[in-house]
Here is the input.
Amino acid sequence: MGYKDIFDLRSVEYINAMITYPQIRYNEFKKFIQELDLRANEKFLDIPCGTGLCKSFTKPLVKYIGVDPCSSFILHCKAHEINAINDNLFVQSFNEN
Here is the structure.
């Protein structure tokens, strides 16, 4: 069973846990994004993006692109106006729009 299979089964539970306990991964993601020190107009490709939480730590002019094979995660991202596409974890090329 791979990532897509696992999260197709449990993505809703994961999303609910992130909503109920948002601090669980907050510090981890915040530190990671700060260490990247992304600049304006740079792109941040988040694979697998899950709920798109990393987007909340990027600077306003950084272009965030999330990719995840789990459609529930992509629907969650879209509902929160997070740029994300539904694709596998082995993306060779993709359309950013």
